[in-house]
Fold each of these.
Amino acid sequence: MVNAKAARSAVGSASKWPSDVYRVLKAANVRQMFYVPDAGHTTLINLFLADPDIASNVLTTEEEGVAISVGAWLGGQRSVLLLQSSGVGNCINMLSLPVIARFPLLMLVTMRGEWAEFNPWQVPMGRATQPALEAIGVRVMRADKPDDLAETVEAAAALAYEADQQVAVLIGQRLLGKKKW
Amino acid sequence: MPRSKTSKPGTLARREAMAALLQHRGEILVVTGLGSPTYDVHAAGDRDDNFYLWGAMGGAALVGLGLAQAQPDKSVLVVTGDGEQLMAFGSLATIAVASPRNLTVAVIDNHHFGETGMQMSHTGHGIDFAEVAASCGFAATGTLRTRSDVDKLAKVLAKPARGPSLYVIKVAAENPPRSLPSRDAVFVKNRFRAHLGFPVG
C-alpha cells in the first residue's frame, strides 16, 4: 500500500501540466490508473496514488495495464494507462483485445528517443512508437507544448470513453524537458 | 539446484472438472483465458456473465483484476490454462500487490500447450503456480487433483476472502470436442455489461 501522505508531498510544482491532466482525468471520471514508472510521469503518478478514490496498479510490464483497463470497463469503470514510449512495444498483442472488442482505452505515453535524448537505446522504440500503435489500430494524438496537453488529453478521453476508441496521447520529449543525468 | 524435469500429470477430465467448479456459481462473474478454458466454460453453459478471451494471451487474470476492482462487491473467477498464465507470470506479482479480496484465479493445468500440438509447458517441467502465487503473497493457494477437491473449492468461491486466491487444477492432457462461444467480442462485451446494468452502445 502506498503511503498517501508521502505521495502527496512528493508532488512537485516543477510544471503545471501534470495537475492539469489530473484534473481533466478526474473530470472524465477515471477511477483506475495503471503505470510503469517514468520520470516524465512522476508527478501525475503521485497525484493519483494520493487519491483514495482511484485504484492504482503498479505493473511489471505495460501490457498488463491494457488488460486491466478492459476488465475495469467490463465492470463499469474508466481508467488510464501511464507508460513510456519503450513500453508501447510491450503492449502490441494485448492491444488486440480493446481494438477487436471496441473497448475504450486511454494511454498517456511519455516520449523518449526523439528530442535531446542522451541514451541511444531509447531511439529505436521512440521511432517505432507511433507507427506501431497505428499498425495495431490505436489512434495517436500528440502534444509538444505544455499548454496543449490538457486539452489534448480531454479530447482523447472523450474519444475513448464516449466514442469507444483506443487512443494514445504521445507527450513529446521536448515538452518533458531534458532528462537530468 | 536444478528443478526436477517433470511434475506429476493430472488425471481429471477437464470438462467434468469445469462443471464441478461452476456447480454453485451463483452470481460469480467469470473471465476465461484463450483456448481450452474458454471452450470448457462455454461447454458448462453459455451465460451473459461470462467474458471469453479468444486471444490476448496473458490477459485473462488481469482482465479479472480490473473487473474485481470495479466490482468490489461481486466475486470474480478467472479460468485459464497453464500456457496462458505462463505468458503473464508477472501478473501474479501485480495482482498480489493490488490484493483484491474478490478475485480467484483457477489455472486449468494440463502441463501442455493444448491448442498447438500438445508441446509440454513449463508446468510439465515442474514450475508450480500455486507455489509462485503463495510466494507473491496470495491469501489462498492450492493444487487440486480430485473431483472432491474441486467440489470443495466450488463451495468457497463466492465466500469473502482475505485477498486474492489461486488454485491449480491438474487435468489430463486431452482435447475434448471444441465448444465454441461467439467470436464477436463486441457482442460478448455488451452482453456482459448489460448483465451488470450498464448502458450498451
Amino acid sequence: MIVTCMCMVWLLVGCTAKDNISIKNTEFTIGVVTKAKDSEYWMSYISGLNNAARDFDVNVILISPQTEKEADVQRQMITDLLNKDIDAIAISPIDSRDISYIDIAQEKGIPIYATDSAYFDVDIPYIGYDNHKMGEDLAEITAQYLKGNGSVGIISGSLTQAGHRERVEGFCGYLDEHSSIRTAFVIDGYSNLMLPETEIKELLDNNPDLGMIFVTNAVAALGLADYLEEQESSIKICAMDAQQDAYEAVKNGRIMALANHSGYENGYQTIRRITEIVRDHKELEETMLQAEILTKENIYNYDLQGEP
Amino acid sequence: MWSLRNKVLLGVLLVITVIVICGVTLVYKKDAEMIQKDYCQNLYYRVEQAGKYFDNTMSSIYEISAKMAYEKELIQLVQKYKEQQTEESAARLSQLLADYKTKNMEISSICVYLRELDVLITSEEYPVRVERPMVALRDSTFHNPTLMGIPYKKEGHMLSFVNTLNTGEVEPSVVMVNVQERSVYYNYLDYLDSSKVTTLMLVDQEEKVISAKERSLIGTSFSQPIFHESTGQGIVKGENGEEIGLSYRAPFSQYVIRLVVSTDEILVQLRSLRFFVLTLSIVFIAAAFLFSYFSTLFIYKPLSQLTETVKSVGQGDLNLRYKVTTKDEVGTLGTNFNNMLDQINVLFKQLIREEELKKDAELDALQYQIRPHFMYNTLNTIKCYALTKGEKEVAELIANFADLLRTAINKNGVFITLQEELDIVDKYVKLQQFRHGDVFAVFYQVEDAKECFIPRLILQPFVENSIEHGFDMGKTDNEIVICASVEDGILNIKISDNGIGMPQELIDKLLNDPAKKVTGMSNIGISNVKERLSLYFGDHCQVNMMMVNKKLEVSISMPAITDAKQLCEFGRREGESICIKR
C-alpha cells in the first residue's frame, strides 16, 4: 500500500517535465522600402504592414526617404537593406526605371517584389492596386458627367513612377476610346504635394472650358479642391487615395469621385502575399487589388473603416 | 492487538499525509513553473518591446544619415571646406550638422569625416574640428550601425551610421550620424535590469558586446553557455535549471538583446511561502487527525460495546445482551447477535429437556429390566402356599425374593433412603446365603447416613459382584463390609470384601463396560450404577474400585441429601435458565 502510494507520488510529481525552450519567434524578415512616410496614405500603408507582420508572425524592416523626390536616397536605402539579413524585399520605387540593385538582390538570393507601384519593363512581381483600371473607372465617371464631350486636365504624381503613369494611361485611354473628351493638359511631379496657387490659376486661365480635373493622389486633389471652392469654380475633381479628408470631400461634393485606393490594404496584402509565397511556399495567382469608386451617392453605404 | 479504530486512524493519517504532501508538492511545482513562465513571457515581451523601440530609433536615424549622404547643401559645404579649410567654413558645416542633429533626439552628434584631409568636422560646439581623428572604417561599417570610440573624446563609445557622401570622388567623405552608447543603455536596456537579472547586454552579429551596464565589457566577446544552442530569439532554460536566458534580435540593426535571469530570484517569493505552506500543511494534517480521532471515536463506540458484549458472552455469560443504540451496520450486528443469543438459549433449553427425557428413558429402560410383574404375583402366591403348609423358612425366602422384585418393579421414586437400599441388600444377601450356605457375612456400619437419599439399586450390584466373583465359596470367612458416612455434605459409601480380589483390568472393565450383564439378579451392572449416578449428580459423584490391602474396596460418593426437596436441585427446574458450571 505504501509502495503504491509512493509510486503514485513519484508519477504525479514527475509529470511536470518542461521543454527547454518555451518561446521561439520566427525570424522570417521582410524588408520594405516605400516612397515616403509623410502622407496619410503611407501612414495607413505602414499600419497595414505592421498588422500583417503581427498576424503572420514575421519581422518587417521599414525604411523610406522623407519625400517621394529622393530617388537617390531610396536607392541607397535599398542597397543597404539588401546587405542585411532579410528573406525578401518589397519596394515601392520612386523611379520605376531604376533597377540598379536587382543584381545585388539576385546575388544574395533575396526575392524582390514591387508594392504600390510596379517597375517598367522588368519582370518583378507586383502587389497592389490595378492602377490602370482605377484610371479607367474614373474616366468612365468623367465621361458620364461630361456627357462624352468637353475637356479634362490631369495632375499626376511623377510619371517616372509606374503607378501614376498607369493611372494616367488608363484614364486617357478610356476617354480616347469611349468619348470625344479632350485631354487639355497633363502635369506631373505632384506626388502627395499640393500645387501652388499660381500654377493652378495659370492652368485654369489657359483652359477655360475644363469640365473635370483628374488628380492621381488625394493630397494634390484636396489642395486643388480648396482653390476651386474659393474661386467658386464649377470644375469637378476626380481623384485617388483612401484617406479621411478625401472621404469628407466626396461627401460634401468637393471631390466628385474618389478611387478608394487603400494604403492599409496595400500594405497588409504586401506582407501577406510575400509571406505565403516565400516563407510558406504557396502558389498564388498574381491578382491585383480592385478599388471601389466612391461618389456622393454611395459613400454613405460604404464601410469607411477601411483599415482597422 | 491493534484495534480497528487505530487501523482506521492510521490509514486516514497516512492518506491525508500522502495527499497533502502530493498536493503541496504538485501545487508548488506548478506554481513555480507558472510563475517562471509568466515572468519570462512578460520579461520577453518587455525585451521585445525594448528591441523594437531600439530598432525603430536606429532605422529613423539611419534614414536621416542616408538622406544626408545626398543632401546637396551638405555636399556643397563639405566641398567648400575642402577648398578653404578655414574656421568659418568649418563652423558653417558644423552648424548644418547641428541642424540635422535636431531631427532626432537620440542623435548625440553628427560628424563629417574628410578622408583626404583626415579631418573630422563635428556638430559639437567644441571641438568643431578634429585633426587625425581615430576613425576606422570598414566595408561593414556602411551597412549597419557600428560601435566605435568617440573620435574626439578619450573615453566613451558610440553607434555610428556611416554613409558616403554622394560626391562622386574617389575617396569620398563620409557622414557619421552617432548615438552614444550610454544613451542606448539607459534608454533601452536599463529598464530591463532588476535584482533577478544576472546578465544584460546588447550584442552584434559577431557576439561582440555593444552596450552593457559595465562599460568594461563593451567591445568584448559575449559568451554565455545558456545561449550556445540558441540561434536567435526566444527563451531558453539552462541545463542546470538555475538560469533562464532571453534573447531578442532586432531585425533592422541585427543587434541582439541578451538577458539572463536567475530562477532562484524569480521564485524568492514563492520560496518564502514554503515555511507558511509547511506550517499550514502540518496544521491541516493535525486538524484532520483530530477530526478523524473524534469522529472514529463516535463511530467506534457502539462497535466497542458490541465487542465487549461478545467477549462476555464468549466467556459464558449468556444472560448478557447488547444495547442497540444505532441504526447502522453495528446496530444490525447487535440486534442479530441478541437474536442469536436468544435462539441459543432456546436451543439449550431444548437440549436440556431432551437430555432429561433421555435420562428418564434410560432409567425407565434400566428399571424395566427388573420388573417382572407376573413373577412377583406368582411368588406372592407361592409364599402364601408355603405358609399354609407351615414352611415358614421357605415363605420367608420367597418373601425376601418378592420384596426384591417389588423394589425392582416399583416405579415410584428414583431415590430411596440408604436404609431402604440396605434392606434390599440384606434380603439379597439372605437369598444368596440360602444358596451358598453361611460362607459369608455382611456387616453394615451406616448409623449416621441411614436417612440419606440415594438412587435405588446402586449397592446391590457391588455386593453381588463380591459374592459372585470375589468369594472363594470353599472358605467360610468371607466378609463384606458396607460403611457409610456423611462428611461436609458428601455421602461416602464404602463396600469392601476380603475375597480373592480383582485385577485392575477387570476393575476398569467393570466400571466402564456398558454391556449388559447376563448373570446375577439383574442386568444392572457396575457401569450402569456409575452411569446412573453420573446422570443424577453429574460431576458431584464418584465411583471407584481398587485393591486396598488385598481387599477389593468400592467407594461411592455423592451429595448427602436428607431432604426430599433437595432432590430437585439435581433435576429439572421450570421457568429458569440453567447455569452449567465448567
